[in-house]
Write a structure and sequence with these properties.
Elements: E1 9-14, E2 22-26, E3 42-47, H1 48-52, E4 59-64, E5 79-83, E6 93-98, E7 101-109, E8 114-117, E9 126-128, E10 134-144
Antiparallel strand pairs: 1-4, 2-3, 4-5, 5-10, 6-7, 6-10, 7-8, 8-9
């Protein structure tokens, strides 16, 4: 079973262990409607490494290639934060290895089979059979993309 290239991973990067990416964290919510008066409430600082990386030894960053997960807010060139220490439970977005190729899909666990579901109607679900060479490589915890 071959996957379309639109569901593949472009590159893999390890999470940094010594780089701090800390910026001030404003302690008030930002309204998405009408603007409110300016306020100077700084809650503290937020280190993005601490926020997105829970298990440093098992976390990797992957760059996405393809359009199969756009319905889940995952677009080409987005960076995924993937944690290999997490359990790949039903309906989680996972990085799977299928027949030697990496892909990002939503994992559906049925009583009699596993399915890898795209989040784009232009792509078909992939049914995992006993003949498939299949392994879940990690669970996607965050998506980083430019606006």
């Amino acid at each position: 079973m071959k996957l379309k290239s639109d569901g593949s991973i472009k590159s893999i990067h390890e999470s940094g262990t010594g780089t701090e990416a800390s910026c001030p964290l404003i302690g008030i919510p930002v309204p998405a409607g009408f603007p409110s008066p300016a306020t100077d409430y700084i809650e503290g600082s937020l280190d993005l490494n601490d926020y997105v990386v829970k298990h440093k030894a098992s976390t990797f960053f992957l760059r996405v290639e393809g359009l199969s997960m756009t319905g889940a807010g995952i677009f080409p060139d987005d960076v995924l934060v993937v944690d290999k220490a997490l359990e790949p439970t039903n309906n989680r977005i996972v990085i799977a290895v299928l027949d030697g190729e990496l892909t990002v899909k939503r994992l559906r666990i049925e009583p009699d089979c596993y399915l890898l579901l795209p989040e784009n109607d232009d792509f078909q679900p992939i049914r995992i059979t006993e003949e498939s060479d299949f392994n879940v490589w990690g669970v996607v915890t965050f998506v980083v993309h430019k606006l």
